[in-house]
Amino acid sequence: MAVQVSPFEQFVKFGTDAWRSAAQHWLDFASKSFTGVYLLLESLTFVEVALDVPPEIGVWGTQAAVGGLVADGQRFWFAGLVCGVLAGGMRLVGGDGNGM
Q: How far is the C-alpha of 57 from the C-alpha of 68, rounded, in Å?
């Protein structure tokens, strides 16, 4: 005998699945966006940090300015990492299975 599911239960299940799917996609989007900003900041400061350019001829002025950009880049990297881990955890717990 088939179990009858009320329309309300169907509505709640659909809403929960839709919310979970939307949250996964937004977390994936945020992860990629934060990582992109991190890579942009790292590429902007790479030459000065790697070559140890003197501040007088550097693009960003002082070493403090370069250090600030590097610190901001690390913050974006960490935010991207957290969002990626949360999205992956939701995928594992939710049993999404579509690989997206």
A: 18
CA gap 29, 87 in Å, rounded: 10
Q: Give the tens place of pLDDT for each residue, 49-77.
A: 777 777 677 677 777 887 888 899 999 99
Whether the Cβ atoms of residue 48 and residue 60 lie closer than 8 Å to each other = yes
Query: Which helix (H) or strand (E) is 43 found in, with range?
Result: helix 7-51
Angle subtended by helix axes 63-94 and 7-51, to nearest 10: 150
As a whole number of Å, the CA-based R_g of the chain is 22
Q: What is the length of the chain? A: 100
Residue 31 near residue 80 (C-beta atoms within 8 A): yes
Q: Report the distance separating Cα 79 and Cα 5, nearest Å.
A: 41
User: Phi/psi of residue 51, each to 5°?
Assistant: -95, -5
CB-based contacts of 31: which residues, under 8 Å, 6+ apart? 80, 81, 83, 84, 87
